[in-house]
From TrEMBL, chains A, B:
The keyword NADP applies. Pathway: Amino-acid biosynthesis; L-threonine biosynthesis; L-threonine from L-aspartate: step 3/5; Amino-acid biosynthesis; L-methionine biosynthesis via de novo pathway; L-homoserine from L-aspartate: step 3/3. InterPro entries: Asp/hSer_DH_NAD-bd, HDH_cat, HDH_CS, NAD(P)-bd_dom_sf. It comes from the Bacteria. The lineage of its organism: Bacteria, Bacillati, Actinomycetota, Coriobacteriia, Coriobacteriales. It catalyses: L-homoserine + NADP(+) = L-aspartate 4-semialdehyde + NADPH + H(+); L-homoserine + NAD(+) = L-aspartate 4-semialdehyde + NADH + H(+). Pfam families: Homoserine_dh, NAD_binding_3. Residues 120-297 form the Homoserine dehydrogenase catalytic domain. Coiled coil: none annotated. This is Homoserine dehydrogenase. Belongs to the homoserine dehydrogenase family. NCBIfam families: PRK06349.1 (NF004976). Its EC number is 1.1.1.3. GO terms for molecular function: homoserine dehydrogenase activity; NADP binding.
């Protein structure tokens, strides 16, 4: 099968390397690159060259960003080409539109690499759903923030110092907002909820990040036998669902607490199989490239055609996700009780209400930090 | 697709329940049971009724044990029926024979449920191998022993008391030898090595269990920041491989250390995808039933035909698996140095040599216990 790569950054190069070294069923014959980077005979900067090439049966989009990725995917599908993408932002924003366009063109859309890098997360949810209902999911879905929190905790370092080091190592972007403010996890949570619950997940999720997390916060939670992880979570009950992204104070005796460096750990709960967890490299050239090539192989062999169906009429019910919250702030917080030195406890809040509470606290004290207390197992 | 169940114990009932409630693609039309337990119109005690029923396309074997399971599987394959089995003992002993008979009859053999219950372990290894070489694997593969060690550690209880409680709860058999002496893990390790490395794995693995583990042993390891888990492990280097089953003293900061109750956690390392871990219920009616029904669905839909191939000419090289070992014994141990109160350290031993050392120590002190020291991550 002849395939075209859109984008030749970290992930694109990983895909090209894996296919050329390890896969005989597929061949990268075209690569879309910027006009000043055409270093390879397969490269073009004109997308028409790819869309009009009838020998190209599959387009792999690993450019990132919303546009032109969205337009390019829609044109590929309209030209009856299968699409594999690792682009969480464009999938979170346009999954329903892509599914419908793919169905209309009689081709398939594959999104494994958009969430969890090399971890077979999307395929596992799809497989579980052949038998079970997924009742909830949660996960450490962002390697950058896990690296930061893990290094702060193991080395007793401050956020800014660890972030700088993560940027040096290439684990964090020069502008780290998408990671540390939870936007990346939000996109992955929307995609996970869509696939797990069969619903066109609302983009209107409560999202808090870890930008304000301090070493002192981690020390305080450690004194209570906990550490902090940024989690994406979703839950379904009957005809309703909710999802959210927020720092969660998990017990030190959980698997989540021990996830090291930039690894990811995703969990689902389902009717008969029970709780399943999947751990691995959530990003990187070869792991994410591997996930893309797995999708390419499914497509080339015709063995697996994903059947994402977002047509379930579930009501978005943010009140389903409730926790006790710890807020470290100098602002006054209504209904709060003391938790520990400088930190307050607010009981039984919906994630959306907790997000609003944090926003109000930040108006007075812009360094305020909040984490949900995970229920003890 | 019409299917027959061989055995109607915990797992067989789980399969029947899941298929009748959740799966339209398959129907259980025959069940093999003992003559005095024929409580259902589908039941027979005569296997000829099943083998001769040409409407039965798939036989699900969940009887356990070597015979007659082995003979029944061979007869089903010879009669051109697909086979799904959860029976680790018979698969570990006869996998190569089953694969060859299935190929000759033009049918498929499915073994997902034989290792890790509801965890998609075998299918994940197969999928990884489409692209990568698996270089090593390891895992908590036995829920009973994990339950025992976890309860001893969390409750500060002694082995015998926890075992008795596990037997009450149905987590442990009345004769617990297969679990606590590592035989169950040995079978799962042989199967994992076969699938991961593509080799007809030798049955001659070094195996130690946890029968002699005491609360004092766990306390001693805890003082060194470790706890003990019974692991099955395998490693491949070039044209050689090794595998072993033994207690391993893992760091408290690892995911393995935190695996609770009767859960399993299996890890593989592969070329491009890196390290992947899979966690879930390793046993039980519904989780293991779920794994069997996943195999049934693959078979019924024709989407996935496992391609187990054990024809790789790898040399069994037990010296590949080396660790430092801690031995708690009153026997004299050659080449040992002090580790801590009553415990010795022996450096850089092959697993097979460590097993021999433990056997010699047990001749003098039958309560001797030994664990490998996991390398710090």
């Amino acid at each position: 099968m002849k395939i075209a790569l859109l984008g030749y950054g970290t992930v694109g190069r990983g895909v090209d390397q894996i296919i050329s070294e390890r896969v005989s069923e597929a061949e990268v014959t075209r690569i879309l690159e910027l006009p000043d980077r055409l270093t390879d005979a397969r490269m073009t900067s004109d997308y028409d060259d790819i869309v009009d090439d009838s020998s190209v049966e599959l387009v792999v989009e690993c450019m990132g960003g919303l546009e032109p990725a969205h337009a390019f995917i829609m044109r590929a599908l309209a030209a009856h080409k299968h699409v594999v993408t690792s682009n969480k932002a464009v999938v979170a924003a346009h999954l329903a539109e892509f599914i419908s366009a793919a169905a209309q063109a009689g081709v398939s859309l594959y999104i494994e690499a958009a969430v969890g890098g090399g971890i077979p997360w999307i395929a596992s949810i799809e497989k579980v759903r052949r038998i079970d209902e997924v009742t909830s999911f949660s996960g450490i879905m962002n390697g950058t923030t896990n690296y930061i929190v893990d290094a702060m905790r193991r080395q007793g370092a401050e956020f800014a110092d660890v972030l700088a080091r993560a940027q040096e190592l290439g684990y964090a972007e020069r502008d780290p907002s998408a990671d540390i403010d939870g936007i990346d996890v939000k996109n992955k949570t929307i995609i996970s909820a869509a696939v797990a619950f069969g619903v066109n997940c609302t983009p209107d999720l409560p999202v808090s990040g870890i930008r304000n997390l301090t070493k002192a916060d981690l020390d305080l939670f450690a004194a209570h036998g906990r550490t902090v992880k940024l989690l994406g979570r979703g839950v379904r009950q009957g005809g309703r669902y909710a999802a959210a992204v927020e720092p969660v104070a998990v017990g030190e005796g959980t698997l989540e607490a021990q996830v090291p460096s930039n690894f990811n750990l995703m969990t689902l709960d389902a009717t008969t199989v029970g709780e399943l967890k999947f751990y691995g490299q959530g990003a990187g050239s070869l792991p994410t490239g591997n996930a893309i090539v797995q999708d390419v192989l499914d497509c080339a062999s015709g063995t697996l055609r994903p059947t994402y169906d977002l047509s379930r009429a579930l009501a978005y019910a943010p009140e389903l996700l409730r926790s006790d919250y710890v807020v470290r702030t100098s602002a006054a917080v209504e209904g709060a009780e003391p938790f520990d030195e400088g930190a307050l406890l607010v009981r039984d809040l919906a994630a959306a209400d907790a997000r609003a509470l944090l926003a109000r606290a930040c108006e007075t004290d812009h360094t305020s930090f909040m984490a949900a207390l995970a229920q003890e197992g």
